[in-house]
Amino acid sequence: MQPLNRTQIAWRAAQDLQDGMVVNLGIGMPVHCSDYIPAGRELVIQSENGVIGAGPEATAEAADADLVDAGSRRITIAPGGTVIDSAWSFAMIRGGHIDVTVLGAFEVAANGDLANWDSRIPDKGPLVGGAMDLAASAKSVWVMMEHNTRSGGPRLLDACTLPLTAPGCVKRVYTDLAVIEVTPEGFLVHEVLEGLSHAALQARSGATLRFAPDCGVLRAPDLTDED
Amino acid sequence: MAIDKRVASAAAAVADVADGARVMISGFGGAGFANDLVLALRDRGARGLTIIVNSATHPLSFTHTLIEAGLVAHVICSAARGRGKGLSVFEQLYKDGKIGLEVLPQGTFAECIRAGGAGIPAFYTPSGYGTDLTRGKETRRFGGRDYVLEEAIQADVALVRADMADRFGNLTFRHAQKNFGPAMATAARLTIAEVRVVQETPIAPERVELPGVYVQRLVVAGGA
Q1: Which domain holds residue A78?
Q2: Count of domains in chain A?
């Protein structure tokens, strides 16, 4: 099977979001997880700009410039939703009221260190946004990213090479090749893309992988890449 | 005398903003930018400003026009990246050492402002601990977890966008327009609100989202 595209990675992460969870989805591909929540599960999507109970992206006709998410997308409010101000929104995040945040990343280390805010592009200004607050204080931090960089280098590492967003915070990683848990003993693989050997996955990783005894097959339905 | 915080124009509202002023500007994600007031401040031409704004570069805000006009000496924000591969005016000035920059995690930025309006001089937060952004800041461990000491932020002026107002300065906000506005209004000596409408009758008490105590001047958006 082909490696998952970014929409399929979002689909796969969304399958693990449980009924009733309060979830913050990072800017970029993670927000698309909300399009693939399994039927029958009702979640509260928190956007750090203060929308509590964010609904799907608005249609062109319904779009309202005052109703946006943290990624500037014009959205809707789900039933039961409301809007609070930024200070309260981040008090909610730091206060431990977010069950899961799904974030993009450049690198994740075997001890759970996350690097997702500064890719060291020369002379470009810094942009941290709410990443550090979410990474430090969500009850569970999940990452979705491609397993390798564009030049083929590993993103799963013994130690991050890029500036950290937060130390020791990542619990799960969803890539185009695998689903990986971050444990006190390092990376533990739970699913691997069909047809990819454990040795091949290890060769594309920059830290030692362990494989769960019941390690399964990573599958996703056909979905068009949205980015 | 009856309280009435309405001011004739955005220009009149910012006419006494001085050189070197610390100015907060609301807005996030395309909503809640006080753009009439920002343009009036640019035309006012006060120099050496410190601007306290979530994003120095959001394409739907006019904050960048203050920077491009050479009025800004220092920026406190959570995002300062221009779009595209080339350098924005801000990024060029920063590269050349001609503009100061302090970047904070967005939640720390918000809480610094909230604290600034609430009489709290500093606070410990877990955000940013163990990262380059908080290097050199005091840290302390509480209950087995590490925290960073962050100091409150106050300003001379806050430019805040809201939806409705009444003559008392009571405000309501539409949806995500709220963002940093309420906190900024509490943390500045002079808060100027740019609103869609100032209604003649007082806003119903249960609908007021920010009490007029925090608002000194009102300007209707799209006015002269």
Answers
A1: 6-218
A2: 1
Nearest to B145 by CA among A137, A132, A131, A142: A137
Which amino acid belongs to residue A158?
A: D
Other CB atoms within a 10 A radius of the CB of residue B198 amount to 17
Helix then strand count (H, E) for chain A reads 4, 13
- Largest distance between two CA atoms of chain B: 56
Domain ranges of chain B: 10-123+154-220
> What CATH number does the domain containing A195 carry?
3.40.1080.10
Q: What's the pLDDT at A122?
A: 84
Per-residue pLDDT of chain A (227 residues; tens, 9 = 90+): 799 999 999 999 999 999 999 999 999 899 999 999 999 999 999 999 999 999 999 999 999 999 999 999 999 999 999 999 999 999 999 999 999 999 999 999 999 999 999 988 888 888 999 999 999 999 999 999 999 999 999 999 999 999 999 999 999 999 999 999 999 999 999 999 999 999 999 999 999 999 999 999 999 999 988 65
Give the residues of chain B that fall short of pLDDT 50: 224
Which CATH architecture fits B10-123+154-220? 3-Layer(aba) Sandwich (3.40)
Strand partners for B146: B141
pLDDT at B173: 98
* Any domain includes A227: no
Interface test with B, best of A31, A107, A133 (most B CBs within 10 A): A133
Pairwise CB contact (< 8 Å): A72 & B60? yes
Instruction: Give how far A14 is from chain B: nearest CA, Å.
Output: 24
Closest residue to B179, CB basis, from A86, A165, A167: A86
Nearest to B133 among A84, A90, A128 (CB): A128
Q: Does residue A99 lie in a domain region?
A: yes
Strands (E), B113-205: 122-125, 139-142, 145-151, 155-161, 164-165, 188-195, 197-198
User: CB within 8 A of B207, min separation 6: which ones?
Assistant: B172
CB B56 within 8 A of CB B79: yes
Residue A1 inside a domain? The answer is: no
| Residue A224 counted as domain residue | no
